[in-house]
Amino acid sequence: MAKEFIYFAGTLPMLFFGEKPPVTLAVFDEDADRLMDSASAALLKQVSLYCADAKNFPEPVRKFYDWENALRNALLDVRKKVRPDAVDFKRNNPDFYSEISAAAAAAAAASDLLEAEKILDQARWNALENLSCSHYADFTMLAFYRIKLLILEKYRQRTAEAGNLVLEDILKQMLNAE
Question: From CA 145, how far away is CA 56, in angstroms rounded?
Answer without folding.
Answer: 18
